[in-house]
Amino acid sequence: MSVVTKENKNVWYLPGILTGLGITLKHLIKNLTNKKQMITLNYPEEKYEYSSRFKGNHILTVKKDGAIRCTACMLCATNCPAQCITIKASEHPDAHVEKYPINYEIDMLRCVFCGFCEEACPVDAIRLGPEWQTPGLNGANFTYDINYLAYRSQLKGGVQSVVDDEDRNKAGI
Amino acid sequence: MSLPNINCTINGVALSVKPGTTIIQAMSENAQRIAHYCWHPGLSIAGVCRLCMVEVAGNPRVQIACNTVVTEGMNINNTSEKVKDAVKWGLDFHLINHPLDCPICDQAGECGLQDQYMEYGKYNPEMAEKKQKKHKVVDLGPTVVLDSERCILCSRCTRFTDEVTKTHELGIFNRGDHAEIGTHDGKKLDNKYSLNTVDICPVGALTSKDFRFKQRVWYLKDSNTICNGCSTGCSVKVYFNKEGLFRVRPQHNAEVNGYWMCDEGRDTYKFVNKEHRLLKGRKFANASWHTETHAGVAAKEASGLLKTAQADEIALVLTGQNTVEEYEALLTTFVNTFKTKNVYHWWPQEAQAAEFDGLLIRGDKNPNTKGLKQALEKFNINTKWSDLEQNLKSGKIKQLVVLGPENINVYKDIEQKISLFSGAAHLIYLSSVKIPALENCSTLKTTTLVPVKSYIEKAGTFVNYNGLAQKFKKVTTVVSEALTGTEIAQIFAGENLKIETGNHTANEVLTAVSNTRKDQVTMDRLKKNEFVFSRGRL
User: Fold this and answer.
1) A168 touches chain B (CB under 8 A)
2) Residues of A in contact with B207 (CB under 8 A)
């Protein structure tokens, strides 16, 4: 820690105070005359637009037919540092799908929004979306289930995955 | 007459092996790594995967290790560039039609293809052909599912059904890249050893219906134990995590089971899981079940009643499903403390005990019948089951302690036996599993139910049909409150429970741990309730 010593004790404070008030007045006039350049927002009415790569609440993507894309491989759950993903897999009646999740839960209060799940996913089944304002009252449910993650009203019927089984089959993969 | 050993050099290490040993055997016995799929020590040699390539000095071409017998002075290596190149291309050919659906494949994490690919893989494949589409999710039988696309045609499973079970269900059909594993028309892969094909499958082509999609294998821990399904006593590995147990697989034991185990034995993890277990002590009195109590409290209450009873009013029933240590502890308590020799052996499979299917399965479904007999002999106890029946009916036996079976599926007579036991004025039933027959029994008088530990949760010894004593360790704890038979014997005798500390006393162990760090509160200070922080003031 450094020690500050006052060298000149007979100093006038008034000019310094007036300079400071002047700066405040300058910014007040600037903000009143030119509102667009104002740094602050009127928060609930105005919202900041984050970039499209912002990592917010999770989305489970869907296939062309609207079914959930996830194959329940559990790589996201394995990669998750907060261990907030719980998946229960089951056998799908369609032999080409084979495995699918019957339960997919994310504990949002545990999640650290690191995006490792998104990186681990081999079929673009989970993404971190743009939503970030998800407050809740005491006792609100922050463990999102499979239906909420894939089909909540904000997603308007689901976000389509870029990886498609039929296209891959046609390509001979 | 035995022939002299043969000397050879493998990867620069001089070895001496028995005549007739193949190179791959010599390598695996001496902890040398070699890639292979089709070779299995318990099966015949097929030589189809072409992966176990080795270079023998003086031979211009690489050759397979599984079908080459070691000869005198052979200089073998599998680490040269030539061998690595051969394995790399062999692996790439295996992967031409492999779907690479590892994320949804149950074998991922313990897959031969994944393992070899990490070591020898050609990370930039040059195969431009489209993958051959084959049958997926084929229902082979009651236990196994086949995925032909993942199959690499190593033929281990077909050789298993041909050579070990001799049931010949599986075969390879069609030619070239259309070749796939299948069963003959209308036949199912349905034998008592079918799940071994899943174990020996080096890829995820054969998967077990029971284990399918339950867990990813990297979430499971494993531990060795002894199967308690029958008196053979196979060495097994159980796979578990905090949610419970998920599967049982065989472990190589040349003296007992070789490389295999039966399908029946693979179900022995089920009754250990929490949903089947008795979690708390319970008491039945005045025609209703009372609230649950702690296991130790229930045992203590029962011991109070036992102590006040006359010696000839007490009887003990044992089954062949517990460890030798538990039998000895219980018998010591009954013979020395309660001064009684009324110990009876409940053995429903006595008539079928000699049955044997020629491979592993035996008619006696208890792992430790022999151990119980030895323990009874040691204490000079020689009783007949008919005496127990008579004494219960006449009301001579008032306090009956039953150490019930764990695997109640093989105790078909449990309902009638429980209605027999209910003749006792006070029945103390020690069980690891829930018993519906007991809870629904209409003739019950006073009954105490005490939860005990299953074979997974305790260390001990099983003596198999052959008199071979096999020790096993504790795997995990499922019901922490349950007591072992030894602990119950101690409670009955009025002793304190002992903590297993090897050769040291419990106090020695605690002080040895606590005095290792300077800033730690020492045991003597702790006893005086002094807390001194030598690291500095707070």
Assistant:
1) no
2) none
